[in-house]
Design brief:
heterodimer, A: 548 residues, alpha/beta, six-stranded mixed beta sheet, 16% strand, elongated, B: 361 residues, mainly alpha, globular, binds iron/sulfur cluster
């Protein structure tokens, strides 16, 4: 096994950092790729842009097959609720809008825009935003929205949504921890573009400044692992150059998963995001440094998010390094460019949380920070042995869960128990499976349990709805019946009274009564008829309801 | 097709490796035992190992499980090893076989095999033998330097396999001390003498009780302590459990000793007597049957320590680690349930935050 001799920064943290429980120290494998300058690869002939490549809903295409597009031109728009924009990553022809394999753990297909590049790589007209400090909050948010910016750290949550909440935010944390082994794109980005990253962060911060205390600036904290000494130096230089004195560096010890959103917050502030809550509940927004860089480009250069830094690495990759790669570039293209034989396995993301790409024709998405090429043989999973309850998994869990109990119940399909043991607080970091001496693929069991529970919940919601509807229907029928009976009763009453009246001995009275009774009877009959009509109407309405 | 799933990296460790580390760490203790009590211990370990592996293979076969990978996960071997270390050095061979077979077949596989057993198999074997054959199970040899008739290698085998030495003398011959009396273990000796009305100070006159905790036993415990510390440092075992056990032993005996130094042994004596260190570091830490939460490990360990002292002091048996371990095994599900660690984002400050946040909205 190769040995990484990673330099540790001796730069001490500028703010006190706290501890997180658990965590592991997998081999870092970073030196392979973090020493090369960011480079470009030849453009792929075909870009496959997945319209659901971000968290949330599918983006709606606004181009048609056969359209010619320029680089940077909008090709898909947000559904207006919870999605983002897509722009042409290069110039060329829209060849297809169809189901294609996508870069997703499921290995399924989804709607993609297929762009045949023309090689000219010609930009559309770009309009930089001018001085960002003169923009209003709404202007800033819309530009972020329309530039298709999503979180580039992994979850690809549309940024404009994350930034919406304005109240009570008092710090911005930049996530530069990059704790997964192999990945170095953020490291490299900071080494080369710290200034731009900080300028981008400033724009984000300006969304909140003057907020709590007028005139005060929002504090920015950069959380970074101590295995990136060069990036730390670059950040300090950039900060000094830009005179951004309210930026503080929190240098955290290298430990996986310190870059998880919740974990980094705990490391930097000592606080825990409440269960079911958001960092904003603690007054924190967190953004990845790559996202800040994209925001910088969107404002200062007018460039939408059409490419990203991707680490290409892995034992069988011959061109290890970081590359600026257009969104939609097929993995297959990257494999060829890395001179990897076709029998390899490609993993998207890091080795701890990434997933295997089943079809290499899939294009990269905005969240693809790393592709690891491995020879298929090195990836065979060792035989799963029984759990010996050694507790190693528990010691490794950053969420302080009891992974072996979760596993136990998940395996037995006791999903309620897994929820008891807080399954949904599991961040699927894989630390537990990494240390398990019995080679149990613990995270797989958790995913299995989670998806089962989700399905059950959906099912339950559905059947609840159906039941409610059914009950409402019964209730309506019942009511109609009740009303009908009520009216019949009234009519009968009237008749009875009339009859009684008719039975009286006094002749005069009797005559009058008889006349009255007749009138009453007629009235009653008339009213009964209308009753029946209303009933009919009610049933009509009711059947209409049912069909709608 | 078998889709691979994250994580794709794996810490290079395995069950067999862990088990071998534990076995390796018993070696210093094993050697000291041999030094003081002869090679009978090694013979025990070998008999137990062969029995354990044979039973494990047989059962796996019967249960239609893959034999080889599980046979060589090392767990059966470790059980056998611990049984061998705990038994008196000249125990008749068939008792070792019966005990070990019972441990593997009943204490382990009837519960579902590795990982599913509630009780520590080695201690089940020990207790079974102790209850069935109390005389043989308490028939320890005197340490070599105090023995009137030290047992040679050939005689060791003769005793174990025939019950008598080559000249036909029975076990009591081997157990004679220099003073002409049959020797017992220090713990056993103290117990007998106390019951006859002697005070600790008088009992301590016996040459057998020289040193902290009796000739030989102090060193045996020290050697197991060293091995145990290695395991701790290598993180093969957690530190909470042994720490809890030693604390339990020390504090509980300190309590009695503080009340009456004439009739209770000192904490130091207890800590280095009998099977204390073997129990605290190697037996109680059996992962399968111990508590698994950080706090639970403390409680589990402490309970074993405290119960051990109580039985040693008031019970009918001289040593009590085995009983203590089994009693605490029963409590594990409950301990684990009530000592679940606080999950990220579930603490009180946060829930306060949450309600505030709700207010604000
Ligand atoms: S690490 Fe593996 S063997 Fe150990 S308790 Fe956890 S699941 Fe069981
Ligand atoms: S995957 Fe879940 S259970 Fe396992 S260590 Fe991470 S958070 Fe804990």
């Amino acid at each position: 096994m190769e040995k990484d001799l990673i330099e540790r920064s001796n730069y001490s943290s500028e703010i006190p950092v706290y501890q997180i429980p658990g965590g592991v120290h997998p081999t870092e494998h970073k030196t392979q790729s973090n020493s090369q300058a960011i480079a470009k690869l030849p453009l792929a002939d075909e870009l496959v842009i997945n319209l659901k490549g971000q968290a949330g809903n599918r983006t709606l295409p606004v181009v048609a097959i056969g359209d010619k597009v320029l680089k940077g031109q909008v090709i898909a728009e947000s559904d207006g609720v919870f999605s983002s924009f897509y722009h042409a990553p290069s110039s060329g022809l829209i060849k297809a809008i169809e189901q294609r394999p996508i870069a997703h753990p499921s290995g399924l297909t989804d709607l993609c825009v297929v762009l045949e590049t023309d090689g000219a790589d010609k930009w559309c007209e770009l309009t930089p935003a001018g001085d960002p400090s003169s923009l209003s909050r709404q202007e800033i948010l819309s530009r972020i929205f329309e530039s298709g910016i999503v979180g580039l750290g992994g979850a690809s949550f549309p940024s404009h949504i994350k930034l919406q909440r304005q109240q009570g935010i008092d710090s911005l944390i930049l996530n530069a921890a990059e704790c997964e082994p192999y990945i170095t794109c953020d490291d490299r980005l900071l080494q080369e573009h710290s200034e731009q990253v900080l300028l981008g962060a400033k724009i984000v911060a300006s969304l909140y400044s003057n907020n709590s205390e007028p005139g005060s600036e929002l504090g920015i904290i950069i959380g970074i692992e101590d295995n990136k000494p060069k990036a730390i130096d670059a950040l300090i230089q950039a900060r000094d150059k830009l005179k951004f004195q309210n930026i503080k560096l929190a240098v955290v010890p290298t430990k996986y998963p310190s870059g998880g959103e919740k974990q980094l917050i705990q490391l930097v502030t000592g606080k825990q995001v409440p269960q079911g809550g958001l960092p904003a509940d603690l007054g924190i927004v967190m953004h990845n440094v790559a996202t800040c860089f994209a925001i910088y480009e969107a404002f200062y250069l007018g460039k939408p998010l059409i490419d990203r830094l991707v680490t290409l690495t892995g034992e069988v990759c011959l061109n290890k390094g970081n590359y600026r790669i257009p969104i939609g570039t097929p993995i297959e293209h990257l494999r060829k460019a890395s001179q990897v034989e076709s029998e390899c396995t490609a993993i998207m993301g890091g080795p701890m949380m990434g997933f295997e790409i089943l079809d290499k024709q899939a294009g990269i998405v905005k969240a693809s920070n790393c592709i690891i090429f491995k020879s298929a043989q090195t990836l065979t999973q060792a035989a799963e042995l029984p759990c010996i309850r050694c507790g190693a998994c528990m010691d490794a869990c950053p969420a302080s869960l009891l992974p072996q109990q979760l596993y136990w119940h998940a395996k037995a399909d006791e999903f309620e128990k897994t929820e008891d043991y807080n399954l949904f607080d599991c961040i699927e970091c894989g630390a537990c499976a990494y240390v398990c001496p019995s080679n149990i693929p613990l995270v797989q069991y958790y995913r299995y349990a989670k998806s089962n529970i989700r399905d059950q919940k959906i099912e339950k919601a559905k059947s609840d709805k159906a039941r409610e509807r059914h009950e409402a229907r019964l209730e309506r029928i019942e009511r109609v019946k009740r009303e009908k009976a009520e009216k019949h009763k009234k009519a009968a009453e009237a008749r009875r009274k009339a009859a009684e009246a008719a039975g009286q001995t006094d002749a005069k009275k009797a005559a009058v009564a008889a006349a009255l009774a007749r009138v009453n009877k007629k009235k009653a009959q008339a009213s009964q008829e209308t009753d029946d009509n209303t009933t009919n109407q009610a049933t009509d309405n009711h059947s209409k309801d049912e069909s709608s | 097709m078998n889709i691979l799933s994250s994580p794709f990296d794996k810490k290079p460790n395995s069950v067999i490796e862990l088990m071998l580390w534990v076995i390796g760490a018993t070696l210093p203790g094993l050697l000291v035992l041999v030094y003081f009590f002869g090679i009978g211990v090694i013979v025990n370990v070998i008999i137990a190992s062969i029995t354990a592996l044979a039973c494990e293979a047989l059962i796996l076969k019967l249960r239609n499980r893959p034999v080889l990978p599980i046979l060589f996960d090392g767990s059966a071997l470790l059980t056998a090893w611990l049984i061998g270390l705990a038994l008196p050095p000249l125990l008749p061979w068939w008792m070792t076989v019966v005990g070990t077979a019972f441990a593997i077949i009943f204490a382990k596989h009837v519960y579902g095999g590795l990982g599913n057993n509630l009780f520590n198999p080695a201690m089940v074997a020990y207790v079974l033998l102790l209850i069935s054959f109390p005389v043989q199970m308490t028939a320890w040899l005197p340490p070599v330097e105090l023995a009137q008739n030290p047992v040679g290698v050939a005689d060791t085998f003769a005793y174990i396999f025939t019950g008598a030495n080559l000249s036909g003398q029975d076990l009591n011959y081997a157990r004679l001390g220099v003073d002409g009396f049959t020797m017992a273990t220090p713990l056993d000796h103290v117990k007998t003498e106390l019951s006859q009305g002697f005070r600790i100070a008088e009992i301590n006159q016996n040459p057998m009780l020289a040193g902290f905790s009796g000739v030989g036993w102090f060193w045996v415990n020290l050697a197991f302590l060293v091995g145990g510390l290695v395991l701790m440092i290598r993180k093969v075992i957690g530190w909470q459990l042994p720490a809890g056990a030693l604390l339990g032993i020390f504090l509980t005996s300190f309590l009695f000793y503080g009340i009456d130094t004439d009739h209770y042994l000192s904490p130091l004596f207890h800590t280095f007597a009998g099977a204390t260190m073997l129990g605290a570091f190697f037996i109680a830490t059996d992962p399968v049957t111990a508590s698994t939460t950080p706090k639970g490990r403390w409680i589990f360990g402490f309970g074993i320590g405290a119960i051990t002292i109580i039985i040693r002091t008031f019970g009918g048996y001289p040593d009590a680690i085995a009983f203590a371990v089994l009693i605490m095994n029963m409590a594990v599900p409950m301990i684990d349930y009530y000592t679940r660690p606080k999950v990220y984002g579930h603490n009180k400050i946060n829930s306060a935050n949450k309600s505030e946040a709700k207010h604000a909205e």
